[in-house]
User: Fold these one by one.
Assistant:
Number 1:
Amino acid sequence: MQINRNFLSLKENYLFATVGAKFTAYRKAHPEKNVIKLSIGDVTRPLAPSVIAAMHRAVEDLAHAGTFKGYGPDQYCYGYEALLDSLKGSYARKGVKLSSGEIFISDGAKSDLGNILDLFSKENTVLVPDPVYPVYVDTNVMAGRQVLFADATEANGFLPLPDESVKADIIYLCSPNNPTGAAYDRAQLKAWVDYANKLGAIILYDAAYEYFIEDPALARSIFEIEGARDCAIEICSFSKTAGFTGVRCGYTVIPDTLEREGVLLNRLWARRQATKFNGASYISQMGASVVFSEQGEREIAENIRYYRGNAAIIADCLGKLDLRYTGGKNSPYIWMKCPRGMKSWEFFDYLLENANVVGTPGSGFGRNGEGYFRLTAFATEENTREACRRITELLDHHE
Ligand code: PLP
């Protein structure tokens, strides 16, 4: 018996588990302190009323023999047509035409980001932006794949562009980016699409935060870019768009013509899903199916506005303190340079102990994240304001 020894190459803990453990230990030692978390990217606003109503209707369906649902429909890998139609409509409004067979409903982006690697050989070389959401690197390390990094730094606005001297087979892009909040415009994405098509590489495009985009120059789907249907898979989620982090529903788009070595990747994924997945719950899918209705969009826009307001509060606070940061626009994340040359974990401890505010150390997202820190706009407005008041008090007095 042999275990998968690739796991031994991972850092001992998933980043957010380490942050959580430090938070819990501090709270235990100081139960009287009110610690504010501007760390994990979880939402706090309740679900939209139309989503709740749709989920209630779905529960009622399950209560009666005539409307009861078991496994989802086989035809579209357990995705219900109401949801597929709504997603097709949402993509059409971005100028992207999709067929139902190109959209695979999932229980969230994280699972699909890991699972999609089943389609690719271990021999492939993977290119991952640094810093980025740790799941891309960790899932590839688990599979024993070689990972190269594309440096995202202040010099390139945290938006690396293709380096012709690098030969990659699988390219991850995350836009708007977690953790830097930077988002690609269409011309920059076109450069990636052209590069991937030239190499015959596949882009895994994580659009989990696309709904935060306000700037019309930025793409909300990679399929807005000419040539993307020949090289891209898009992975997205209702988690941040509509507060589904606990409900669980996402979707992965694989064009039905996308092929490598004469094999259609859409068909490979359908085969993979039919074997290893049994669908997202009917209740989640029905809730998701109204997110892009007129009323649903109006309601979720209200929540997004709330988070954008928090981002503006944080940005304003850092700006007044003369601290360098990016993000906070087109993104729920603010990526700040740690003050006074502090390292990421050093600043984490400093902020936790002196302001009772928790953020996420940038170094946890990659080598280039050292010396940076991520704050999120997902807390309540009250907590965001209070955290900013404490940060200001701490850093204003000590500069
Ligand atoms: N992709 C990125 C970039 C994320 O930051 C996250 C969650 O924070 C996810 C995917 C996971 O989304 P889901 O809740 O759909 O699994």
Number 2:
Amino acid sequence: MSTGAPAGPATAWAVQPSGPLRGDVRVSGSKNAITKHMVAAVMGSSTSTIANVPDVGDVGITTDVLRSLGVGVELDGDRITIVPADEIDAEVAQRYSGLNRIPILLLGPLLHLRQEAFVPLVGGDRIGARPVDFHVEALRSFGAEVVETEDGVRAKVAGRLKGTQITLPYPSVGATETVLLTAALAAGRTVLNNAATEPEIIELALFLQRMGARVELSPGRRFVVDGVERLHGASTRLEGDRLEAFSYLVAGLVTGGQVRVGGCSQERMVTAISTLQRMGAEVEIDDDWISAHPGQGLSAIAIHTDTHPGFMTDWQSPLFVLMTQAEGMSVLHETVFEDRIRYPATVVAAMGGEIELFTTCLGGPACRFHDSNAVHSAVVRGVSKLRGAHVEIPDLRAGFSGVIAAAVAEGSSVIEGVHHLERGYNRPLDTLQSLGLDVRRTDPQPAPPAR
Ligand code: EPU
């Protein structure tokens, strides 16, 4: 298995529109589940095995981080084996700063294993401020002494971390994971209120339960965890990635084709499916596959992103492109990350998408960015005629928007910065080619002079 890194130095793709995209895509496990499972496995007293692992760059980054701490990580096909270290290193090296968001999740496990920890500043897509204050406050509540330094976060604890009561200010995915990972081995009971309950989090909780943790999911976004003395290794197979599944359904729809996605359950996709249906797509579902085609044509929609089970923020970027190809004015209100909407909007607008951005909360209830100056709503006019362009993609999800916009544009496009895409999508070049898109690697090229 490769680690998802591009072959050779090229980080650009050349895309020629090639008509409707059609075919089957079987999605693998999600990047946002595998990396967290890898962190959990570090706490086991024996080996863990995880199957259906996606071939994405983030797995490679997380593998490197864990190996640098002395953890054994073996990749074999779509299976990963984690052998916990006899004595794990307590510090994640500076060279892993800014690559992804996983190091912050290691603080709790490292505190359990070493009573001290340092992780460098975390990265991930630039889609908002993305502070780590909820993580830091949660760890303090478990009894750790935590200091945020210029280059990272340092923590220590005298003795064992203690179970606690935490209410998150917002149901953050990462902070919920920090609490679950930390509570599993803490002394006594932890109650977490206002937790995130995204499917990838439930998957992590189930994996921890397999490792011997005592985790209870109560109604009303509440986890109760009774800490245990030790966790053992466990085996699991990851569920399919709902972000990838939606991205490929949209790739089919936007080009007037039909893509069938397998390996991702209907339950995970319920809001994505109902949204596509509201736009006029005809969706067929059976136990193995979900497919969508444009039916009699797509029409505009107003939607806001939300925590699960709402319309997830990561689905927003491909939806942008679909909105440009739907009849009428669509409205999109991003309520999770204050800065996320600008990236796909910029890419799609560079290709001729008619998009207007607003700081106000449009098309739904006011969100927590209401009183800020954050650009977090958009009006998209459809049908916009997209034209090929030379664009630099700024992040993972906006990157996919650029590619599917190029697939439906008039003329050829060059998409720079595809390493972002390869960090999170499983072999995206091969998959898009298998659907009939004329896309190939090319050398990075100088952008044409601005007009
Ligand atoms: N937040 C804080 N303080 C914190 C933590 C979060 O203010 O300490 C805020 C964030 O700034 C944001 C909101 O809470 O406004 C939600 O952030 P969350 O913590 O839920 O996001 P995350 O854990 O950083 C994960 C995924 C994202 C996905 C979001 C929302 C990973 C590695 N990343 O991010 O995925 O969009 O949850 O579901 O799991 C992607 O895959 O491309 C991606 C960005």
